[in-house]
Write a structure and sequence with these properties.
Order of helices and strands: H
Structural class: mainly alpha
Oligomer: single chain
Number of helices: 1
Radius of gyration: 26 Å
Helix content: 10-25%
Strand content: under 5%
């Protein structure tokens, strides 16, 4: 078979839902996504397990 007549390899297809919701969610300017949703959570964990038990301090 001639090299120019060989069938091209098929590209892997992505699922049609990948990217379907792109642009649907907008984050307002100035919002810190790393800010804890519940700042008092750390105090509750320290009360329950003790300070420094869950991480290196």
């Amino acid at each position: 078979m001639d090299a120019s007549k060989q069938p091209l390899p098929k590209k892997p297809r992505r699922h049609p839902l990948i990217g379907a919701m792109k642009g649907l969610l907008t984050i307002a300017p100035g919002v810190d996504l790393t800010e804890p949703a519940f700042p008092g959570w750390a105090d509750l964990i320290e009360e329950k397990y003790g300070k420094g038990k869950l991480c290196d301090e």
